[in-house]
Amino acid sequence: MLSDALLDAIRDEGVMRRVLKRGVSEIIVESEFVERLQGGRPLRLKMGFDPSATDIHLGHAVGLRKLRQLQDLGHKVVLIVGDWTAQIGDPSGRSATRPMLTAEQVRENAATYMAQFFKIVDRDRTETRWQSEWFGDFSLADVIRLTSRFTVAQFLARDDFASRFKANQPIAITELLYPLLQAYDSVAIESDVEFGGTDQMFNLLVGRDLQGMMGQTPQQCFLMPLLPGTDGVQKMSKSLGNYIGIDEPANEIYGKAMSLPDSQILPYSEYLTDVVDDEIEEMRLALDGGSVNPMELKKRLARELVTQFHDLEAAREAERHFERTVQGGGVPEDMPEHALPPAETLAGMRLSRLLVDAALASSAGEARRLISQGAVQIDGERVSDDSTAGVKAGVVLRAGRRRYVRLV
Amino acid sequence: MLSDALLDAIRDEGVMRRVLKRGVSEIIVESEFVERLQGGRPLRLKMGFDPSATDIHLGHAVGLRKLRQLQDLGHKVVLIVGDWTAQIGDPSGRSATRPMLTAEQVRENAATYMAQFFKIVDRDRTETRWQSEWFGDFSLADVIRLTSRFTVAQFLARDDFASRFKANQPIAITELLYPLLQAYDSVAIESDVEFGGTDQMFNLLVGRDLQGMMGQTPQQCFLMPLLPGTDGVQKMSKSLGNYIGIDEPANEIYGKAMSLPDSQILPYSEYLTDVVDDEIEEMRLALDGGSVNPMELKKRLARELVTQFHDLEAAREAERHFERTVQGGGVPEDMPEHALPPAETLAGMRLSRLLVDAALASSAGEARRLISQGAVQIDGERVSDDSTAGVKAGVVLRAGRRRYVRLV
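Above: the input entities. Below: the structure tokens describing the complete assembly.
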């Protein structure tokens, strides 16, 4: 049972409003959830992750912060390492099954993930479970029982399946198993509440249904809004390159936050900081009325984010760095250096390759995009083609606003 | 390797025509099949059965006779006891999964089935395998690998799935597993040829594809025509009640064969007897020209069938019985007796109930149908309602043409 102090907090109207409304799209079924939350029994809050993708970005943080709020009210997170569903992959339309990760890779990836996860979520109120605990011994008979409970039509009604089916894009039969396995996780850990983005609603509801069919009390579903990436438009995702990783250096987090369109200042502040509601409302009024420079509010947001994932000192330093380099237009004092290859190698080298080697771009594709966007400079001169003409020791190579090296 | 004598037989044009054409709808791919058949290596001829349905009727016999012909040419039948697919059931639109049979039931049913199977198929050239040999240890990883090779759209293109999907009838996800498991059987036993009715073509082709994907030489598919039942219209099936079981008493087989519409004399003779092609052609001409009473040809067919599943003596006796009872309109000498219940019980009893008790109908539903069709007589008087009025000791109760009891 939860302590009286926690129960008092849980029953506090302000706390409940923050937990149930802020950064939440929908709760299915809200009234049942509140009843369970206030019932006095610590709830089991299900959160799964795919160990083939180990980076946590702000898009994930929206939900993880919600978990932390609920932990602070005495509830327990059950973190599921999706070492089986990772082999299938939630449908992306590209490949039906992924190469099987080795047990060693899964362990390494899980460790990488958890190091980030526990920056937000309280490790002491978390139970970690591996899907292999229940799927390792899963038999064909278990698969038959599981698949017999749902119809093909039910699953093809899911938005992404429906559109792919209509467009004659292949859907492997395996992909129908994905929601079923995720649903069975809820049964295996006796989940009280599952958390996911609004695009996960179907999967969460299958879990809810399956628990009911298997004699458990159906879980509540907590649907989080999808956070737009730094482009302000598309859902934040690593593959789109519009993400802010919570494990990135302070200067990166700060700089990327400053690159957000102004329209994202309020949603980011609401979903990702503890700035109180009244203040956010004041920010809204000030922005609407033009009485504040959005840059100032964005700097506050950037500081809040760096403070959260590093600390206050790092936030202040990142702000100074930003003001010096980007706002001042200058170059930083502590510029990294990159050693040029021998002249004969350099002569046959594309600039895009050099940008990758110097860690100014993550791929040749990104490098070429930066060049074509005019975002690459050599000693302050914009470069327009993918050539290393003009490159020599001593010059500063710059990609975008915030990445530099001095070539040596 | 097959003996020279067998190879000579296999290469005989007349033999090949009989094996490849008579009672065969389609061979996929015929040229490859002939090449393999004549290659000198005994082929593995896959034949599966569902141990939840143990009765072999003439519809099955068409394929089993083909197996026997190929055995006589030196090839080997691999009989698969479908103890796993039986749990799913090939889609009928009614129920997605069947109750799991106990291991004991499966053994009993398999024994019942095989006692009939080996009336046609040569036991010495048969290897019996159980699906549980490979599916008993089938893991979730195996299921994932298997399901990743085919798409939902491929499977929904199968006729029965397509029409059910279109009609919004439920298709359990499990049902998509059925063709996959049957296909995996081909891999497990390294099938060279699989046999099935034309309605099984999809499943057989999935087996062929899967073998290719898994590095085996794809099996050939031998598609048998679907035999109409005794109504001459619908596919013979136990559930439709239009079947002739190969294990039925001689009089039943004979009588049911005599009830066939004339249109079935030639197909039945072609698919189910060894009457040579030339004679069948003569029968066709005689029927077309009206130079023969179809009854005579049907009697020959009935004799051939009883001889096959009992013996010649039984066939002659069944013919005499038929002539005496049905053709003569009389009642048989050796009429079975049925003891009436006490008068007070009888008074409150429906006639349909009495028909079931006297084994003249298999269910009250069938009994009521017989009554409403005017097929029930008491001492030669047609009965029109479901009442036991007129029933008393000494009278003959008759249902249809060939079932009688004397009430005592």
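Note for the figure: The first strand of chain A starts at residue 26 and ends at 28.
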